[in-house]
Design brief:
The chain is of the alpha/beta class. It has 8 helices and 13 strands. It has 3 domains: about 5-65, Beta Barrel (OB fold (Dihydrolipoamide Acetyltransferase, E2P)); about 70-220, Rossmann fold (3-Layer(aba) Sandwich); about 230-295, Probable gtpase engc, domain 3 (Ribonucleotide Reductase Protein R1, domain 1). The longest helix is centred in the last third of the chain and has 19 residues, at about 275-295. It binds guanosine-5'-diphosphate, magnesium ion (MG) and zinc ion.
Length: about 300
């Protein structure tokens, strides 16, 4: 690194500009052309080397340092904690999307956490039913309300000193939760308008925000997530709650689908393994089988 180069963190990327926090200020940078050739571009959360223009807060990103992990939806790097936000009320929780997001986090070895927001609008039974599927995961499941402040100190404790990525459908309250923790952020929030229903997001870009002695990424909501192709037989290992049963099925190569004497299915029958998570596991398994079969097409 030459004298004038600095190392910093990408806190935001918009229209070809990367905003890099370094030495107590933010530099507006462009990326060197060669990143495009390498088909890699800086992401929020990236540690980068920049060459600032002399005496200005502009410059170029010259190098992306090795990533600890990389999420594609939302696109970000070097995350300590994946915060999956679901609404206990509206919009209705898309649990298949939730499981795909948890799978993505597991693949990248990012610790997950589940936040059930809008608990002020749901009954304890509704909240319990939603939480049930995720209890066996071993990750924290928090019942929250950005509106009343329910659970906020617990959430703050979980985020302290970490880089967390808030993800989930539009309008579940990601920005509202961040505002409740740090009102000075003054993030834009939106109602369940026709606009959001059609997929226009209040939060257009991911950005890294200082929060609870760490950072949090507020990200746009989205409703689709493609699975990364992988051998279907590997799927089960990304379900932490399946670990106690693996290797205990009759067939060594059991996919826990239609096979007889399957320890996972037995656990589903006796209630030890949440039925909803299992049904969606099968859905993802079939999707993966299909993808895997067509991978060289
Ligand atoms: N009643 C209630 N409304 C909430 C809560 N959290 C968020 N909202 C509302 O839900 C809408 C979407 O919130 P927003 O933070 O923009 O969601 P995002 O798209 O996930 O960032 C807004 O109208 C918020 O005021 C909550 O805990 N309770
Ligand atoms: Mg938002
Ligand atoms: Zn099995």
């Amino acid at each position: 690194m030459s004298n004038q180069e600095l190392t910093g963190t990408v806190v935001r990327g918009v229209g070809g500009f990367y905003y890099v926090h370094a030495r107590g200020q933010v530099y507006e940078c462009r990326a060197r052309g060669r990143f495009r050739l390498d088909e890699i571009s800086p992401l929020v959360g990236d540690q980068v080397v920049i060459a600032p223009d002399e005496g200005k807060n502009t410059g170029f990103v010259t190098e992306i340092l090795p990533r600890k992990n990389l999420l594609t939806r939302p696109p970000c790097a070097n995350v300590d904690r994946f915060v999956l936000v679901l609404s206990a009320h509206l919009p209705k929780a898309d649990l298949l999307l939730a499981d795909k997001l948890l799978l993505q986090a597991a693949l990248q070895k990012v610790e997950p956490m589940i936040c059930l927001n809008k608990c002020d609008l749901a009954s304890p039974d509704e909240i319990g039913a939603l939480a049930k599927d995720f209890r066996a995961l071993g990750a924290p499941v928090l019942a929250l309300s950005a509106k009343t402040g329910q659970g906020m100190s617990e959430l703050a404790g979980q985020l302290a000193g970490k880089i967390s990525c808030f993800a989930g459908q539009s309008a579940v309250g990601k920005s509202s939760l961040l505002n409740a923790l740090a009102p000075q952020l003054a993030l834009e929030t939106g109602g369940l308008s026709k606009k959001t229903a059609r997929g226009r997001h209040t939060t257009r870009f991911s950005s890294l925000l200082p929060l609870c002695g760490g950072y949090a990424m507020d990200t746009p909501g989205f409703s689709l997530l493609d699975l990364a192709p992988m051998p279907p037989s590997e799927l089960a290992q990304y379900y932490p709650e399946m670990a106690p049963y693996l290797g205990r099925c009759r067939f060594e190569d059991c996919l826990h689908d239609a096979e007889p004497d399957c320890a996972v299915k037995e656990a589903v029958r006796n209630g030890a393994f949440p039925a909803g998570r299992y049904e969606r596991y099968k859905e993802l398994l079939h999707e993966l089988k299909d993808l895997y079969r067509r991978r060289f097409d």
